[in-house]
Write a structure and sequence with these properties.
The chain has 118 residues and is an all-beta fold. It has no helices and 10 strands. The radius of gyration is 13 Å and the shape is globular. The chain starts with a strand and ends with a strand.
């Protein structure tokens, strides 16, 4: 059973930075693609960034150039470095394993809250 534990969120001023971490267990991490998602109040969860097992990345348009997804296979952890944060980035951030067709594989964790003040 896949287990996902997100951490690293917090309160930051606009223009600031945060680094989120997601520890993954219950799956052979180095073989799977991962994604970071976020859900703002009253909105649907949306995909923010993805990284394949080979390290190829992709980003939602609004975060391109500001966010960087990376992975450490030895630590079974995926990261999201968020720079130049904006109030509209405020959301609960989640990670999950992605199947080959883009579906999520694991149950959602509790996520980590990111709040950006203006």
């Amino acid at each position: 059973q896949v287990q996902l534990v997100e951490s690293g969120g917090g309160l930051v001023q606009a223009g600031g930075s945060l680094r989120l971490s997601c520890a993954v267990s219950g799956i052979i991490f180095r073989f799977v693609a991962m994604g970071w998602y976020r859900q703002a109040p009253g909105k649907q969860r949306e995909l923010v960034a993805t990284i394949t097992s080979g390290g190829s990345t992709n980003y939602e348009d609004s975060v391109k150039g500001r966010f960087t997804i990376s992975r450490d296979n030895a630590k079974r952890t995926v990261y999201l470095q968020m720079n130049s944060l904006k109030p509209e980035d405020t959301a609960v951030y989640f990670c999950n394993v992605r199947s080959s067709n883009g579906d999520v594989v694991g149950s959602w964790g509790q996520g980590t809250q990111v709040t950006v003040s203006s």
